[in-house]
Amino acid sequence: MWGILSGKVALITGASSGIGAAAARVFAREGAAVMVTARRERELSDLVDELTGKGFEAAYTVADVTRPEDVDRAVSGTVQRFGRLDVAFNNAGLGAEQAPMHLMDDAVFDAIVDVNLRGVWYCTRREIAEMLAGGGGAIVNTSSVGGLVATPVAAPYVISKHAVVGLTKAAAAEYAKQGIRVNAIAPGTTRSEMIEAWFALQPGIEDLLHAVTPQGRTAEPEEVAEAAAWLVSDRASFVTGVTLPVDGGYTLI
Ligand code: NDP
User: pLDDT for 40-71, tens place per residue?
Assistant: First the structure.
């Protein structure tokens, strides 16, 4: 069966839940062999069983994106298992702990920047090295609407996600001539473990978010995954360095 990722080998980080797990299903359905990675092994193993049970090619590597040696193992493992690396979705991320900026604990800043920025930095560089060896490729990084506009009491998250936009532009400009495209997506409110945890902590926040989202609802993770699949596919062959809002219009108003 033909799909927009037919014949591609994909690495997806943050695939044990939410948007990353949805992306594994969408990428596989669109024809990619997928290597999924995160820290929780049981979730990854269940996902791979589900995908291979449907006849798709899938495998997992347990990896923490804040550890370059883990990232190296995930990328090398992809090449060992599937022969090369064509596309990568650097999606692992940590939610914002809420506090006014002047009271924010430095340890919270470090933890969020470590995953959301340093993790994407380690992944992007290692993937690019592999893609240069393979003659090209495409990468999508997960930023956020918080990477395009600011929201109060979430400074480390906003800072880290703006940095992902910058990292994406820098990599796109640097490697365009070598056949590597690098883009980002900026999801708005999307149903996942991260957002459900926030909704539980702050009753009423979901309605507030809907009120400032023109489409007036929370996205399903598959809707975000579809945008990532298109961006890494050859259908987006002249698109590089952009951050695509997938936000129901949140950043319009
Ligand atoms: P989830 O909490 O469901 O997913 C987060 C994923 O990141 C998990 O698979 C988690 O796996 C992984 N992860 C976290 N820390 C690490 C780490 N150190 N190393 C490896 N993997 C890690 O939430 P979402 O699906 O919503 O989040 C996915 C991305 O989307 C994030 O980058 C988030 O910031 C972004 N986003 C989400 C929005 C939303 O409304 N849901 C809105 C805007 C952006 P594990 O714990 O197993 O390691």
Answer: 999 999 999 999 999 999 999 999 999 999 99
The verdict on residue 176 lying in a domain is yes
- Low-confidence residues of the chain, pLDDT below 70? 1
Judge whether 57 lies within some domain: yes
Residues having CB closer than 6 A to ligand 1 are 13-20, 38-40, 64-66, 91-94, 115, 142, 144, 187, 189-190, 192-195, 221
Q: Break the chain down into helix, strand, coil percent, rounded to 5.
A: 55, 15, 30
Burial of 111 (0-12, 13-18, 19+ CB in 10 A): middle
Q: CB under 8 Å to 10, separation ≥6 — which residues?
A: 27, 32, 33, 34, 35, 86, 87, 88, 89, 232
pLDDT given at position 76: 98
Atom of ligand 1 minimally distant from the CA of 193: 3
Catalytic-role residue among 60, 122, 157, 250: 157
| Residue of the CA atom closest to atom 6 of ligand 1 | 14
Domain CATH code at residue 174: 3.40.50.720
3-class secondary-structure state, position 111:
helix
Note the pLDDT of residue 29: 98
Residues in the chain: 253
Asked if the structure places residue 211 within a domain, the reply is no
Q: Is 157 among the catalytic positions?
A: yes
Q: Which atom of ligand 1 is nearest to the CA of 40?
A: 47
Number of folded domains that form the chain? 1
The pLDDT of residue 9: 98
Give the range of the structural domain holding residue 169, as residue numbers without chain letter. Answer: 9-192+220-246
251 assigned to some structural domain: no
**Residues 33, 151: Cα–Cα separation, whole Å:** 37
